[in-house]
Amino acid sequence: xxxxxxxxxxxxxxxxxxxxxxxxxxxxxxxxxxxxxxxxxxxxxxxxxxxxxxxxxxxxxxxxxxxxxxxxxxxxxxxxxxxxxxxxxxxxxxxxxxxxxxxxxxxxxxxxxxxxxxxxxxxxxxxxxxxxxxxxxxxxxxxxxxxxxxxxxxxxxxxxxxxxxxxxxxxxxxxxxxxxxxxxxxxxxxxxxxxxxxxxxxxxxxxxxxxxxxxxxxxxxxxxxxxxxxxxxxxxxxxxxxxxxxxxxxxxxxxxxxxxxxxxxxxxxxxxxxxxxxxxxxxxxxxxxxxxxxxxxxxxxxxxxxxxxxxxxxxxxxxxxxxxxxxxxxxxxxxxxxxxxxxxxxxxxxxxxxxxxxxxxxxxxxxxxxxxxxxxxxxxxxxxxxxxxxxxxxxxxxxxxxxxxxxxx
Length: 409
What we know:
- The chain is an all-alpha fold.
- It has one domain (about 15-190, about 205-405): MFS general substrate transporter like domains (Growth Hormone, Chain: A), CATH 1.20.1250.
- It is about 80% helix and about 0% strand.
- It contains 17 helices and no strands.
- It has helices at about 5-45, 50-80, 80-100, 105-120, 120-135, 140-165, 170-185, 205-210, 215-245, 250-265, 270-275, 280-295, 300-310, 310-330, 335-365, 370-390, 390-405.
- The chain is globular.
- The two termini are about 35 Å apart.
């Protein structure tokens, strides 16, 4: 095969892989759109208090923190990413089905534990697929992730309207069906080839040594602090809107708006990274988070919150693009799923702290509004950490530039 034929074969392969990733992201985040915006109000419908909701909010991030790095490392070592992703989605769907019938704190806790354990590594594995493909195809990771936003946007709006017409908890059944669909379409993903040397000897990854890198450590600390606020949104935002008098349709619309806000940032991710660089993108996201949570804290009505949702793209999407790429660049292709799992674990640990603290705060004040003050403070501290780490960011950037220069020898 000549050079042009090789190029054509490579192009055809990239197209097939891009389509496979696009379809998988669409269905995976469509399922998320049927679940996360509505689980908080469902807890309230079941009569759970703030402390119980906060405790339930710790189950998923704890599972991610404990299991995602281990499952990611296992998938990396065995090169069975597709198989793991497909298999994990099945018990996740089963857990959602069981949650539909769960009433009372203990049954819900048991159902959420099964759900959290089985879903812990699904997103890191899918992201490792995407960022590896982005590197080889020169297609920005954000543009691949955009298909997930589309799936979320389509489903969350529909579920919001349908849920108001159907029995309470029906969204859980919709979520389970979408997860099974995601598991089926995951068969389109290409089988990962072994990322180790041809000799077949498994490479060892020194996680403790990797964490001594001040840039990587800084990213994980900042992710932890930021996740205090992200966890707040996951566990309490739907309840917050309900307290403001919003219906399930408005809750669905609010979630659809955040999906729309991600589109320009995900589509233009390559341009953003070339203009700002990943480190500056993280700083911009942190500042925008402080503004966003402050506006929530003073919101007089649900209608006021809707335009604030547009800030989501500048916060979540920008932070996601920059952090995923920085961690991948620092860890390398051989341990992509492992380090995406570590990043997910840092985010999860922050969510645990946010869920516990904010559950107590909501009970003390009798409303969830003050939890957004806690979230804003977490991001202010993250900005301080970023400023303290600025010398290391600069050193890393200079080192990358030096490596790109041609050798004088």
